[in-house]
Amino acid sequence: MSALPVPRSPAEFPHSPLSAVLRQPMLLGLFLPLQSGGWSASTAPRGTDWSFDYNSRLTLQAEALGFDLAFGLAQWVGKGGHGGAMQYREQSIDSFMATAALCGLTSRILLISTLHVLYGPWHPLHLAKFGATLDHISKGRWGINLVTGHLAYEAPMFGMERAEHDRRYAMADEFSRIAEGFWAAEGNLDYQGEFWRTTGAYVTPKPLYGRPILVNATGSPAGMAYAARHSDIVFTPSPGGTGIDEALPALPAHNARIQAAAAEAGRSVRILINPTVVCRDTEQEAWDYYRAIVAGADDGAVDGFIARGAVSDAQGWKKDRLREHRIVGGNLVLVGSPQQIVDQFLALQATGIGGVQLSFFDFEPDLAHFGQKVLPLMKQAGLRL
């Protein structure tokens, strides 16, 4: 069996869509609400919706504002979702299929599909072929957020048992190396690994810029090692908690560990974090909005979400247990006037964060307000070109 060839990252191509957005001092992304309830277990009034029509409007709205990327989660839940009166997240559309459809509707924004590659009958050849196809449809704007599945109740849905944490990353590493091998190989590929094998397979068309964009979310040593070898963009939770004052002291050392792992592999990565932004024209109005969201908490949904999270072995989420922030959503919750939001972005940048993947409570009007009031201040502050 021959060694697996390694493709170049699209970041190595000066004219690739990924290279274009990496010129931004701070990447700006939108975390789409592909699931009912979005990111907030609150029944306060809003128009946020899980439908494709709603999410396609959001994506086009974000693209018009100059956002760099958009993606959504992939989830597997049973009847009733996480529970509560709102049946939190019971309804959802698939991230892989939704972003594939968005490739044909957009022209500039990067589109990232989240996919559990260790569930079911997935083979690296599937991803290599599908990914190369979407790479051409999007003209190099498509990528994959590869996830291993940290929730114990998901794997049995596929007739499987959840593998141990670090073993899952070993499996993901082999899966990714084979898929990347297909994108780089000039002839048929033969390979026999510990978890997958292939004989005489070949993938066309070849991606336009080496390979599609590769993304993962991690806070663990095994996940950081995987990111160092494969990822262009790394999503990280806050290792110190979901409040900005808790996050800022813990992030510098955490981000430095991610970059050190990448440097050891001869690479660099861009680190993003996911804040929910609660912004109004004044600080008082923003906190009033925040309190209204919290007042609308669906306690059953919050309890169900926390209980399901308790069967996770994801090492990056252990300190993310503040109930109010579960209600509002996000790995961080940023509250304030437009200038205060920008000041918090600047503080995050100083810790080594290179981008924010934003979620909102009421997405369409909140995104419009962000574009009108916050984005110009980001440009003035040097966060956006």
TrEMBL record:
GO molecular function: monooxygenase activity; oxidoreductase activity, acting on paired donors, with incorporation or reduction of molecular oxygen
InterPro entries: Luciferase-like_dom (IPR011251), Luciferase-like_sf (IPR036661), SsuD_RutA_monooxygenase (IPR050172)
Domain Luciferase-like: 27-353
Keyword Flavoprotein: yes
Transmembrane segments: none
Keyword field: Flavoprotein, FMN, Monooxygenase, Oxidoreductase
Protein name per UniProt: LLM class flavin-dependent oxidoreductase
Taxonomic source organism: Xylophilus rhododendri
